[in-house]
Amino acid sequence: MTFEHITAIGLVFLYSLGALGLFFGTLSKRRAVNAAADILTLAAFLLNTLAAIYFFAVQSLDALSASAAPQLLAWAIVFISLCARLLLRLRILTLTATTLALVLCVLSLRSSPTALVLPDNLSALFLTLHISALFASGGLLALAFGAGLLFVHMDRKLKRKAPATVFSQDLPSLSSFDTVNRYAVLAGFPLYTLGLTAGFLWGPLFSQAIENPKVLLSLFIWALYALLFYQRMALGYRGRKTAVMAIAIFTISALSFGIDYSLSHHSALLRAWP
Amino acid sequence: MKQEIWLLGLSYKTAPVEIRERFALEGPLADATGCVSPDEEIQECMILSTCNRVEILAVSSKDDPSPFLLRRWAAAREESMDALAPHVYIHKGHMAVRHIFSVASSLDSMVLGEPQILGQLKEAYRKALERNTVKVILNRLLHKSFSVAKRVRSSTNIAANAVSVSYAAVELAKRIFGDMSGVSALLIGAGEMAELAAVHLVNAGLRSLYVTNRTAGRASRLASACSAEIVPFEDLSGSLARVDIVISSTGAQRPLITVEDMRPLLRKRRNRPMFFIDIAVPRDIDPRVNTLDNIYLYDIDDLREVVAENQAQRLQEATRARTLVDEETAVFCRWLASLDLQPTIVDIIRRSERIAQKETERTLKRLPSLPEEQREAIAAMAAAIVKKINHEPITFLKRQGGDQDAGIQAVSLARRLFNLDRGEAPDDSCSGGEGK
Q1: One domain, residues A107 and A180
Q2: A170 and A86 in one domain?
Q3: Which ipTM was obtained for this model?
Q4: Which residues of B touch A (CB under 8 A)?
Q5: Same domain, A273 and A154
Q6: In which residue ranges of chain B is CATH 3.30.460.30 found?
Q7: H/E/C letters for each residue in chain B?
């Protein structure tokens, strides 16, 4: 059993308890449950951080294994949600973040721990930039997704004049979710663009772009993201439409991430590389 | 004689407003009549007098002090006892404790879960403290009732949602905008409910309020009543582009604001959300406006429905809250029962003997070679030490028992000193200045 697998088991355990605790704490409003959930989430994040530090101590981003990648992405998602919680006092977004982190850690548990060995001429700064910028934008997109889901839920309730449930009555306002969505897109799109550009400049991605579905999908996501960015920043769009769009972009990105995994896309690219 | 808690009162449930007015016991009146002065019949006393209830909470060692209290109450208002008695409910002991906990938790209020009653109870307690009419039992009872109310509020959703139309409108606005300090509202027309909603919005921290009316005089009156700015009625669409909340209650026969008016306005507003509260009948705002993105429209029926649902939710929560009140009542009554001298002396002796026995066993375990005779001597010595140590506190308690108030205070202190209630006793610390 490798280090990634051991940490993945620990992370699955802690993130699942944290997510369950946050869910039941929100429903029951019991202070003890909420406090326990916060402690478990922080413990999971701490373990995630230690695993990331260990990873960077022994390897580098350009030797990312299939089991380490989801853990790093989970770390980025939870880190950004915790920052949003500290800055904007939006506790509920930690619930969506821990749930996504849990899914990623399960994926890590089921993936190969073998590190991708790159030829020296491919191991470059652009690859590190490609991965780190995309992980950061992934974390921000997950935040926009969580805020978007909650916005759509509340908007629907308000439009239909449905009574406030135990879950919805303590939720922050619609405007708070819209603000989070706005900031996440504002910071996430440039990072996504940077990550994608670095990937193309790296080499293998650029040469195989046309025939690879993953690359085409990434370009499609970028186009949607650019549209959302333009609508938000230039046209001043806000509310349900932008929330739905953020949800759609995140869903397609998650699919793209899944395709990357199932097709071992990056490995295939490298094998094809002369 | 054992002291008992008594509660006599009338409320909106038992007496119409005319009777409540006639028998209200507030401020100077209560002082002047001496109705709250503890005397031979009554050892402790406190009055709670609000628009919905008048209650006298007393501690007495008499079999039934209620006729005496009723006589004093009626005399204080120069009324006959016959006019008062039919409307009065009387609770004793456990039921009195349960009642005051329910009152503090707003389970007995006209509007279930309303927060004012707790403040009124604290104020009544503060006055009783000033008059020096509350001692050990009522002190603890009142402090405990404040903590029960807090527990009920934090553990249930009894006060979670608004139960008046105007408050419901403010709550909905908060769900849309959150912080109200950057939000502005426009009041179209004049109407009592709309005005009330506007006042609640201003109290919630609204940035600015505008009013508009076909009649300039009414607009001016409203503006001064709500500290608002007047905008010309002819410039309604211009004003709509600026504000976030619109409260409308005109007598217009056709909608003032239509979906066609709002579409271009939304673009002009760069899709900032808007909340429309239409209190007018016939409605001032075209219902199709609600189909537009970022616009939320509630008419009077929608708001009433929200209120009805919130009330139903509070009723459900009240069942949970009553269970909490029952639990706390049982704890308090156990403490109250322990205030008798004899059970406390027995508890002190038993506790000390238990400790002595445990420590003797522990010591003897370390000395296995000790002959039986010497083991018995050590056990006897431990028992004798305990007896001697207990002698003085028990004598002190018995001596204090001659005076009822001093006796209760001494028993209460002894129970805390020896931790006889294992932390179950209600806290009577006066922290936070509640009622002080």
Answers
A1: no
A2: no
A3: 0.80
A4: 154-155, 157, 160-161, 172, 174-179, 270-273, 290, 293-294, 296, 298, 302, 305-306, 309-310, 313
A5: yes
A6: 4-155
A7: CCCEEEEEEEECCCCCHHHHHHCCCCHHHHHHHCCCCCCCCEEEEEEEECCCEEEEEEEECCCCCHHHHHHHHHHHCCCCHHHHHHHCEEEECHHHHHHHHHHHCCCCCCCCCCCHHHHHHHHHHHHHHHCCCCCHHHHHHHHHHHHHHHHHHHHCCCCCCCCCHHHHHHHHHHHHHCCHHHCEEEEECCCHHHHHHHHHHHHCCCCEEEEECCCHHHHHHHHHHHCCEECCHHHHHHHHHHCCEEEECCCCCCCCECHHHHHHHHHHCCCCCEEEEECCCCCCECHHHHHCCCEEEEEHHHHHHHHHHHHHHHHHHHHHHHHHHHHHHHHHHHHHHCCCHHHHHHHHHHHHHHHHHHHHHHHHHHCCCCCHHHHHHHHHHHHHHHHHHHHHHHHHHHHHCCCHHHHHHHHHHHHHHCCCCCCCCCCCCCHHHCCC
Residue A89 touches chain B, beta carbons under 8 Å: no
CATH homologous superfamily for the domain B165-307: NAD(P)-binding Rossmann-like Domain (3.40.50.720)
Tell me: do A101 and A147 sit in the same domain: no
Nearest to A159 among B160, B271, B296 (CB): B296
Determine the distance in angstroms separating the CA of A12 from the nearest CA of chain B, rounded to an integer.
31
Report, at the CATH architecture level, how domain B4-155 is classified.
2-Layer Sandwich (3.30)
Shared domain check, A173 and A257: yes
From A205's Cα to the closest Cα of chain B, the distance in A is: 39
Nearest CA in chain A to B174: A173
Number of domains in chain A: 2
- What confidence score (pLDDT) does residue A188 get? 93
Residues A170 and A252 in one domain: yes
pLDDT > 80? residue B405: no
Interchain proximity B296–A158, CB inside 8 Å? yes
Q: Tens digits of per-residue pLDDT, B166-222? A: 788 888 999 999 888 989 999 998 777 777 778 888 888 889 999 988 887 877 887
| Whether pLDDT at A262 is above 60 | yes
